[in-house]
Amino acid sequence: MSDLLTIRDLRTYYHTGGRTVRSVDGVSFSIADGETFGLVGESGCGKSTVCRSILRLTPEKITDLSGEILFRGQNILTMSSQELRKIRGKEIGMIFQEPMTTLNPVLKLKTQIYEQFLDSNMKEDEKYARSVEMFKRVGIPFPEKRLEEYIHEFSGGMRQRAMIATILAAQPKLLLADEPTTALDVTIQAQILYLINTMKKSLGMSMILVTHDMGVASPMCDRIAVMYAGRIVELAKSSVLFTTPAHPYTAGLLSCLPQNKKKDDRLEVIEGAPPNLAEELTGCTFAPRCKYAQEVCFREEPGLEELESGHFCRCHFHYAAAQAEREGGGQ
To answer: How far is CA 233 from the centre of its chain?
Structure first.
């Protein structure tokens, strides 16, 4: 499989209130055709900013974007507004967290889905047929009637379905799904995830799935990057990440999953809080919360090393080695 998207040393810095917030600080990865790539981590670690940077949806007046975002070999960061318009929403679509703030509450859904066809040569009846088809495919009943309604007339799950239909009407090659099941109950969440995965396969898309829930990422993603404080701290195939986590932060996230516990076991927590990204950080950003941290961790920032083929980790003492040392009676 060839790479559809390649990101190299992406840095997204916000300048606000006399401070510089390093929201994304040197992120690199690639996505192959047809691949689902997961970005996981706590709130504020930079996951959503990566997606917004890909489409250049960050506020320009306060944002510094640097690095490379290559989509089919073209650098999005150097594109003109006209060139970007041909890609944004057409070749690359994005599902946002909240439909009520994404879709326009004063426009009928038919009007909004038609916006996906502005630069196409589709006739009016073709636009209508495509819109009805998309509503049917995402499971919205009576699509002809519901296209004439407004987003506030839909329930939570149906709002998400309507947004997915609107985004996918243009049949993008890359889908950015930013916490697509936020505020939905567990049953509806499962339905939406199944729907997105089915649509992805039928349309032959690649996808970046942003989530804080490792349980959601596991069955959906081919590879997963774990982010912390604006950086990728571990990247591996999903099966490898869940069976042999190398970074203490990844191991901590997995230990918090209820399905990994016996009935009477207490859920573990990762003590402390993520660092302030507006402050100058020294050494490993996870060191203040890491039970395996040593003096060098607070002094020197570790690089992202390849432990084995396709498995990368940013840690001086990766989790497996630290655990073995502890169990063996080492320091």
So the answer is: 15
Strands annotated E in the chain: 3-16, 19-32, 36-40, 63-71, 74-75, 92-95, 174-178, 206-211, 223-228, 231-237, 305-308, 311-313
Q: In which region does residue 97 sit, left (phi positive, over 0), alpha (psi from -120 to 50) or beta (all else)?
A: alpha
For residue 267, give the DSSP letter. Answer: P
Determine the longest span between alpha carbons in the chain, in angstroms.
73
Which contacts (CB < 8 Å, 24+ apart) does range 282-288 have?
A: 284/314, 284/315, 284/316, 285/228, 285/229, 285/231, 286/228, 286/229, 286/233, 286/247, 286/248, 286/249
Q: Which H or E run contains 45?
A: none
How does pLDDT run across 161-208, given as a tens digit for each residue? 999 999 999 899 999 999 888 767 888 888 888 989 999 999 899 999
Query: In whole angstroms, what is the distance from residue 264 CA to residue 33 CA?
Result: 44
* Whole-model pTM over 0.70: yes
Half-sphere exposure of 149 (CA within 13 A, CB side): 16
- 164 conformational bin, left if phi > 0, alpha if psi -120 to 50, beta if neither: alpha
Could you report how far apart the first and last alpha carbons of the chain are, in Å? 44
Q: Do 214 and 40 contact (CB within 8 A), yes or no? A: yes
Tens digit of each residue's pLDDT (9 = 90 or more) over 94-116: 998 877 778 899 999 999 999 98
Residue 94 near residue 47 (C-beta atoms within 8 A): no
Distance (Å) of CA 221 to CA 98, 242, 256, 311: 22, 12, 19, 15
